[in-house]
Each structure stands twice: as structure tokens, then as C-alpha cells.
Amino acid sequence: MTTTAAPATQTYHLFIRATPQQIWDAVTKPEYSAGYLFGALVETTGDIGSPFRYHAPDRSTLWGDETVLDADPPHRLVVGYRGLYNPDLAAEPASRVSWQIEPADNGVCLLTVVHDRLEAAPKTAAQVAGPGWMRVLSGLKTLLETGEPLNA
Questions:
Q1: What DSSP state is assigned to residue 110?
Q2: Which N-terminal residues, if any, form the signal peptide (predicted)?
Q3: I need a labelling partner for 72 at 20 to 30 A (CA). Which of 1, 98, 99, 136 fits?
Q4: 75: exposed, middle or buried (Cβ count in 10 Å: 0-12, 13-18, 19+)
Q5: What CA–CA distance (Å, rounded) separates 23 from 149?
Q6: Collapsing DSSP states into helix, strand and coil, what is residue 2?
């Protein structure tokens, strides 16, 4: 049996009928993240150097506790990533997630998400590869375009 390691750089593109500000808010505000990120409540100012935290839905534990590495609201956000919700993932070094939001035509934006620096985090890479990120991004798109969570 042959197994293939998940890529150390994963790139996802999708078009969303929303403004750059709406997408930015969905990525940085808990009232949105709860609807597409497995109930996680994002806490951040979005300012470079500020914390970027994911709280469990009941706020009892941190699912992620990283830092905003770069930001150009509402077009670019770069954050560290380490999944504290799973001990195997928490033991790996932080990777990086970049959100690039580009206006397109007719009220649509292209969202590009790049999850990289996964070379030393193979368990994280496998967890987020393919369906992992696509579930999150499909939920984000659905929430912004319909006002309803994907899992409703």
C-alpha cells in the first residue's frame, strides 16, 4: 500500500458573491466564524502582531492561539495556525494561513487561501488537506451568499 503525504503548501480558490469587507468580517468576527468553522469563535483585531484566537463554541478552551503576521484590511490577512483542539496537531510547529481577497466583476470576489509552512507539520497538513479546507470554505461561501450556515 502506498500513501501520499499531504502537500506542504495547499492553495484553494473560490468566488464568493460578497464584498471584500464582508469576507474580511467573516474571517475575523465570531458572529460569522461560528457559522462555518465548526462553531469556533474567532477573536482578533486583525492588526499585525495582535492575537488570532479560535475559541470553542462555549469559550471553555482555545482551539487556536496564534498571531496576525500580516494584514491589509480588507484584502489580505496572514495568520499563524496550530490546531490546539487535537493533541497530535498541537504538538507540531505552527504553520501559516494567508487569506487574499480580490474584487472581481458584478459584486463577486476571488478568495484565495494558502496554507503553507506545513513541512514540519505533516499531521496538520493531512487534517486540513482537500475536504478539510474545502468544508470550511464552502461553509464560508454559503453563509455569506445565503445568510444560512451550511450545516443548518
A1: E
A2: none
A3: 136
A4: middle
A5: 15
A6: coil
